[in-house]
Specification:
Helices cover about 80% and strands about 0% of the residues. It is mainly alpha-helical and about 200 residues long.
Length: about 200
């Protein structure tokens, strides 16, 4: 019995990966708007039912694994601040580690990262959906900080400043996976050099 669950999980993971790979191949070949769920399922050699077991729509395939990663990092952030009431500088330092981890994971597969960024750039609906996911991440970090005893100002401001650093680094990195993490880190460093002080 004990061996069955891992085998089933591996099969499910393979099916999910086939869907993602097929989708990104088709998006690159035809453009996001010209690809249907049926097209993706056929290329991945799975049924439509299998597709919808893993993804609600074709947009969600573009963000495969990102939500899981953000959830894991939010939990790590929560654990890192337990028992403390961070000020702005400390809160930013903690979030910086989480954001840089997101960057490192996002750029691990350079080709996938480039395709992903191109899809977001060329499709406003995907760009908006990506921004909503990032905003939900900042809301989770805000809640973590509140629970840790941070002031309302720190809890609200630190995650938004971190998001600004991520977006600035993303812009400065120009969709180059080799530059993203360094550019985001440089944005945080520039913010720290500005020496924000809370009243």
């Amino acid at each position: 019995m004990t061996g069955r669950a891992p085998l089933r999980e591996r099969k499910q993971q393979r099916a999910r990966e086939q869907i993602v790979r097929a989708a990104f191949e088709l998006f690159a070949e035809r453009g996001f708007g010209e690809v249907t769920v049926t097209d993706i399922a056929e290329r991945a050699e799975v049924g439509r039912t299998t597709f919808f077991r893993y993804f609600g729509d074709k947009q969600e395939v573009v963000f495969a694994d990102e939500q899981d990663l953000l959830d894991v990092l939010a939990e790590r952030h929560r654990a890192s601040i337990s028992g403390t009431a961070p000020g702005l500088e400390e809160a930013l330092a903690q979030i910086r580690l989480a954001v840089l981890a997101v960057c490192a994971e996002a750029t691990r597969d350079a080709q996938h990262f480039r395709r992903h960024e191109r899809l977001l750039r060329e499709n406003p609906e995907l760009h908006d959906r990506g921004n909503r996911k990032l905003q939900r991440f900042t809301e989770t970090i805000t809640e973590n900080l509140r629970e840790a005893g941070a002031t309302p100002m720190v809890a609200a401001l630190a995650p938004q400043l971190a998001l600004a650093c991520f977006n600035a680094g993303r812009h400065l990195g120009e969709e180059d996976p080799d530059r993203l993490t360094g550019a985001v880190d440089a944005a945080f460093a520039a913010l720290g050099a500005a020496r924000f002080e809370m009243p």
